[in-house]
Design brief:
By secondary structure, the protein is mainly beta. The strands form 3 sheets. A 7-stranded antiparallel sheet has the order 2-5-14-7-8-9-10, with no helix packed on it. It contains 1 helix and 15 strands, in the order H-E-E-E-E-E-E-E-E-E-E-E-E-E-E-E. It has a single domain, classed as Sandwich (Jelly Rolls).
């Protein structure tokens, strides 16, 4: 049989191309994400030519039946009972009736804490509404001191990434230990541009976290590492989170 030599290169290219396509389909990588991290939405921090939408007022907290509850509404501007803890070039300010960041430099992924000067919190609860625009993690701090603290971490809702979007961590000078996390089915993560109610309750060595009135996770620190300290909120130093109506009860 006589073979057309001109067809040989074409046939070879078709065979090689088909093989490459098959290999590509078979070797597409699978991203394995640890439970304490999150693959952010690729659109979370993209520049946008449209001006940011105005932040609506936060809902009011339900009345508290517990005497001695202290609520910070950020309407008066003074933050005498609070201070910020961060290595970033930023400060927390009360503006437009809510807690925001004053960020003169570029946004960074450094932790920015806003906590009470009072360090007598033992058992009790801390609750606040938060409003996120950047898609970066944020949350709450309880029983904080120079030795460390318990930290609640919440992540952005990315439906295609169904790892845990909420954790309770124990943070010390040399280690971050995850004490508990919430299954994706229980808490899929927070939504952008939505006021969400976060509450953390501490009794003895047990920490319980709720979102919009529903418990999503609980942790018990067998070592009971931190028994007293300051409380507050935290986010990245990126200007992407606002807080309002922080109430401390203990």
């Amino acid at each position: 049989m006589k073979i057309n030599r001109l067809l040989i290169p074409i046939v070879a290219l078709l065979i090689v191309g088909g093989a490459l396509l098959a290999m590509g389909a078979q070797s597409r990588p699978t991203i394995n994400v640890p439970a304490t991290t999150l693959v952010d939405s690729p659109n979370a921090n993209m520049a946008n030519d449209t001006p940011p939408r105005a932040v609506p007022p936060a809902p009011a907290l339900a009345p508290s039946a517990q005497p001695g509850a202290v609520t910070e509404t950020f309407d008066g501007g003074a933050l005498d009972a609070w201070h910020g803890i961060t290595d970033a070039n930023m400060t927390w300010v009360a503006k437009d009736g809510r807690l925001q960041q004053d960020l003169p430099d570029m946004p960074t992924e450094q932790n920015a804490l806003f906590v009470t000067k009072d360090s007598s919190f033992t058992d009790g609860s801390v609750e606040t509404y938060f409003y996120a625009t950047s898609g970066n993690p944020l949350g709450m701090i309880v029983r904080g001191s120079n030795d460390g603290y318990y930290r609640v971490v919440l992540f952005f809702n990315v439906n295609t990434n169904q790892v845990s979007k909420a954790t309770i961590e124990k943070v010390t000078s040399n280690k971050v230990e995850t004490l508990a996390d919430a299954p994706f089915a229980t808490y899929p993560g927070y939504d952008l541009e939505t006021w969400t109610l976060l509450k953390t309750t501490v009794v003895g060595n047990t920490i319980t976290v709720s979102i919009d009135g529903k418990d999503i996770m609980s942790a018990t620190d067998a070592a009971n590492t931190f028994t007293q300290g300051w409380v507050g909120v935290w986010s990245y130093a990126d200007g992407g989170a606002s807080f309002d109506n922080i109430r401390v009860q203990h």
